[in-house]
């Protein structure tokens, strides 16, 4: 049993964790930030819910002494890069991301050396060390704007998501060298399942995150970040949507308009929950309580690395 699992097992079962988290949040002057892929009850407890860009902005702007980041490690790391003096805790340090894992900083450094005339644009889903090797950071909300801010004759390496990169190449007409990383959740969606679902529900619009494979994006009526998908369901006249992203986002869609129908696109194997991000889902109420109680696990970072990672991140944030 891991040390964290042992701590969870030792929590007094008579405690009301909702009350405890609220009490500790006040005592610690803490803010709880949560990504749209968190489970519904975690979203409902959060002070702020958002996509990666909104969460980075909220982390930048907070006055709280402690940030409890309910998302994955690279998101909490981003909060620490922007807030060196605040305590940043995460419910479970093992909440990683397959895209961040796909692009180690040393491998990116070697690739850059082979293409010295290129600038590097990295998707925010990467480690601080990989950010430090980048010229720009982008999120799925602002990626197009970031690419368009770079002079048209400047060659670009785009890392680590090859699907978001291919989508941006189509959208901007720019040729880019693409790192070959993928999201293990979005790559599980199959074209065949989507065609079957569309045949059964011709009334439903398809909304998809750009981390999906290009073959799937071809069917989408709307492509965008989690916040963009949410906004689209609110302003569209359609009554039903096939949702090709992590189904955690459906909670906010249902809250915003419960009269509409949101149909999660299943993974290839319908018997598994592989359309759910296994990293995001490591976070639980128990671990949130422990993180606020013990102020650990904390995100700590070497100052030279933090400053190097901050530069491309601030360049992105300065775009607004
Ligand atoms: P968003 O920035 O669109 O919320 O995406 C984050 C993410 O990890 C998607 O898999
Ligand atoms: Fe990473 Fe994919 Fe999970 Fe997003 S859904 S955190 S990209 S593994």
Walk me through what this model shows.
This protein has a four-stranded parallel β-sheet with strand order 2-1-3-4, with helices on both faces. Helix 3 links the parallel strand 1 (30-35) and strand 2 (48-50). The protein has 320 residues and is an alpha/beta fold. Helix 2 packs parallel to helix 15, helix 4 packs parallel to helix 5 (73-82) and helix 5 (73-82) packs across helix 16. The chain has 16 helices and twelve strands. The mean pLDDT is 97. The longest helix is centred in the last third of the chain and has 15 residues, at 303-317. The protein has three domains: 3-95 and 279-301, Rossmann fold (3-Layer(aba) Sandwich), CATH 3.40.50.10800; 99-183, NadA-like (Rossmann fold), CATH 3.40.50; 186-264, NadA-like (Rossmann fold).
Proportion of helical residues: 40-55%
Give the names of the bound compounds.
1,3-dihydroxyacetonephosphate, iron/sulfur cluster
Please provide the ordered H/E string of secondary-structure elements: HHEHEHEHEHHEHEHEHEHEHEHEHEHH
Distance between the termini: 45 Å
- Proportion of strand residues: 5-15%
Q: Give the uncertain stretches in residue-range form.
A: none
Largest sheet: 4 strands, parallel
**Averaged pLDDT, please?**
97
Oligomer: single chain
Strand order of the largest sheet: 2-1-3-4
**How many helical stretches?**
16
Overall tally of structural domains: 3
Which structural class fits the helix and strand makeup? alpha/beta
Shape by Cα distribution: globular
CATH homologous superfamily designation of the largest domain: NadA-like
CATH architecture group name of the largest domain: 3-Layer(aba) Sandwich
Determine Rg (CA atoms, Å): 20 Å
